[in-house]
Amino acid sequence: MGAKESLPGDGPAPEMHHYYSKFMRECPSGQLTLHEFKKLLGLQGLDPQGEVYIKRVFDIFDLNKDGFIDFLEFIAAINLVIRGKIDQKLKWYFKLYDADGNGCIDKKELLSIFTAIQAINGHTGMSAEEFTNVIFQKIDVNNDGELTLEEFINGVEGDAGLMELITKSFDLSNVLKVIQNGRRHSI
């Protein structure tokens, strides 16, 4: 009788336990720093653009802005990327692009974050400039050179091609696979 029987109402506890033990193994202090986050994802030695992107991702996952990702923030991030509804993901992407936090994305912000993502994920079929122009052409309805959250969500949800482009370009599931399966081992 060595194995613990699961009780009714245990819910997702075994999965949480799996994440918790992995998190604590990777991060015994219970607080993941930016350096540890990059190490966990195997993303040390990035170019400056890549560094900017990873720092933005880290800052968005750091919900209480204390400079660390704790276990609850870690789980919230995993839940968003794995189970999040599309509008939740779009809000998250918007936050990622809105580098200065003013509630709007301008071309410069979108261009810099897309350049950074390409540095990590490899280049897609279009340049960062083309990508930025396509996004603004399609969804900047009032042509003011800025996208509000509403313009962004409505524009992307209303255009299947754009939705696919954005979700593919900013797909974080590869990041999460590393988190779920443990650190990337170099050969």
TrEMBL record:
The keyword Repeat applies. Pfam families: EF-hand_1, EF-hand_7. It comes from the Eukaryota. Residues 49-84, 85-120, 127-162 form the EF-hand domain. One of its GO terms (cellular component) is photoreceptor outer segment. Keywords: Calcium, Lipoprotein, Metal-binding, Myristate, Repeat. GO terms for molecular function: calcium ion binding; calcium sensitive guanylate cyclase activator activity. The keyword Repeat applies. This is GUC1C protein.
